[in-house]
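In this supplementary section we document a worked example of the pipeline. Step one takes a protein sequence of length 134 as its only input; no multiple sequence alignment statistics are reported here. Step two produces a three-dimensional model, which step three serialises into structure tokens for compact storage. The input and output of this example are shown verbatim.
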Amino acid sequence: MDTKLLARAAAIGLAAVAITVAIIQMREPDIPPPDPATIDAYAAPVDPLRQELRRCQSIGVEAANDRDCLRAWAENRRRFLAPGARPMERLPAPEDLAPDETMDQSAGAPVSDGAPPEHNPILKQHQSAAGTAN
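The serialised model returned by step three reads:
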């Protein structure tokens, strides 16, 4: 019996709080939205190359024959491959990375990079393991 009474009291209290919040909200004056001119006061600088690349993307296959698209792609490659575009520190050497045997999925053997087995530790390890298994 006490739980029913407690549930009813909680429901009445919740309804009272909801009505109070609604009345307070209705009494507050409406705030007009900000002027669109103040929102657009700062516009990010527009990169003409980016716009041209988007245009070339939108025209599809025809871009391959468009002179302006060819120029834009050349400029994009120049920017991307510029000396300052690369990181200053070198990537770690492959032997510094965690050992990861790249396996040829069809043959079950490590993939060769064309180096002789004595210079390829993965092939050397695989061949020595295959020799002991026979």
